[in-house]
Task: structure prediction
Amino acid sequence: QVRLIESGGGLVQAGGSLRLSCADSTRTLSRVAMGWFRQAPGKEREFVAAIRGSAGVTVYADSVKGRFTISRDNADNTVYLQINSLKPEDTAVYYCAAQATYYGSALFDTANYRYWGQGTQVTVSP
Result:
């Protein structure tokens, strides 16, 4: 049973940084496309970033480009999301997702991913 285990969330002041981690408990997902999504209170879950392929091709939501960086360490079966210049509007529960079926714009779609983590809370104070 695949489990995605997220960590790294917390409370940070605006302008600060966090690094979120997503570990694959079965160590079998090193070659699949993986993504990060977030969900703020009262809002739908939205795409943040994804990474795919052996070359680590990345794609980002426009709202986070230049501030967020997704990366992966295949040796540790871990995907990271480095978040810089945090804003209060970045406050949300951040979810890791794995094994996207389709690429391209489908990477933005929650239904495209097979496995999900439990989420980690990121709270940004003004």
